[in-house]
Write a structure and sequence with these properties.
Helices cover 21% and strands 29% of the residues. The protein has 288 residues and is an alpha+beta fold. A five-stranded mixed sheet has the order 10-11-12-13-14, sandwiched between helices. The chain has a three-stranded antiparallel sheet with strand order 2-1-3, with helices on one face. The protein has a three-stranded antiparallel sheet with strand order 16-15-17, with no helix packed on it.
Amino acid sequence: MLFGIPFGRDKNTGEWKDVAEVSRGLDCNCICPSCRLPLSARHGNEREWHFAHHTRNVSKEDIVDCEFSFQVSLRMMIHQLVIEGLILKVPGYNQRVTVPRELNNSIESVVKITDERFISTREVNYSVDSIFLGQQVDVIFNFGTASLIVYLAYRGRDFPFSKRLLKNAKVGALIFDLEKLTQIFYSKPFTEDDHLGTARTQLLGWLKSSTEAKSWYYHPREDKLIDDRNSIIDEALRNKKPATNHSTIPAHKLSKCKCLGCGQTFTGYKNMANSCPNCKTHLYVSNL
């Protein structure tokens, strides 16, 4: 484990505590978020303050491998911070489409799905630590016509849904990678004064002001926006090709094509993107 545990759970109240908020040693009255063993608060001078497992007088059978205590503690504290209320910074999202060489100068390959934005938990309906389609997710935001999942991932807790499933449910998905966050948590300030703060301040600053370790997995608008761009590409290709019968073009410039989408075979042009006459798109066409 790279770091000590930054957040522990109060035995009496169940509230998640920053190590800087509690008394030193076992007087912190906290347990590990992962294995439930007692924690001792370390307030030292040589490294960041942290919780450590207190295993004295604990049987060997009760001492378990607690490799992910750091990430679990981040996840549990994020749940609490969302419930307390915050403004969450969400990254922008772009996708790329294939643009044929002859159209590179006229059509952009990057499709902007959404810009960076902020979501206020005080202005939108949400639920924390909920079940969605049989799987536990960390936050669900409900925007009326669509919803957004926030999933906190780390090794051993992978994102459980396919894009097809999310598309059918009209649900977007953001993945917050706590493994990546772990690598920068105690090295990069996320606070306005540009100094490392307490673990709670760091985590809150990351949620509110940073897009690092946050990424889109799926956005409900991305399929339509990508389809619209591909339609523009196909229309441009149709307008660019000469309206000439294939019989007047030398055979060495023609190519037999097959659409992998519908199975249609047809004659096209070599070294060009050929649209299927049925599907009206070049995306699934290959030369035979």
